Amino acid sequence: xxxxxxxxxxxxxxxxxLNLPSLFPQPQPLEIELGCGDASFLVEYARRNPxxxxxxxxxxxxxxxxxxxxxxxxxxPNLRGVRIESAYFLQYLxxxxxxxxxxxxxxxxxxxxxxxxxxxxxxxxxxxxRRTLSLGGMVYxxxxxxxxxxxxxxxxxxxxxxxxxxxxxxxxxxxxxFERSFNAQGIPTLRAAYQLEGKIENAE
Length: 204
Description:
Elements: E1 30-34, H1 40-48, E2 53-58, H2 61-74, E3 79-83, H3 86-93, E4 99-105, H4 125-132, E5 133-143, H5 146-157, E6 162-165, H6 169-172, H7 177-184, E7 190-196
Parallel strand pairs: 1-2, 1-4, 2-3, 4-5
Antiparallel strand pairs: 5-7, 6-7
């Protein structure tokens, strides 16, 4: 799966759930970033929070390799990365209710109307998040695209298991590479957060 020298998970199967305890040296709460980009956010967040395990998901090889390089340079035992498509990963490769937080920052907005079906945050996504999160778990969202932000809010506001929450200041201040670029151009970050409530017995 993964070892102390290679932070990238080598998938033995794309149909069997991951053995999460085997990936990290310490059994700690797990947070997942979907589409971790160059891993600048996740590496810094993992550095600041050694009592939490972090898993970055990214489909592009060059980007996920940056997670390994940056995390290895800092010697972060609580960081791992996997190269795969995010929605598939949540649906098929994670045991249920395994994570305490999902981070989705600046996903591809697919701005053309005919392409919006490709957006990660769609009508089906809250169900995937509900399957992945433990009770009380959080979904943190960021984007620069107002239309996509409206869609994010709409689908989670319609999901009765989730309630709106606040993004902690310490989390909001850790930015992604895209975020820094957009902010430098005067484009603001749009943020939302949601918390999973209620029972999860029938969340499969």
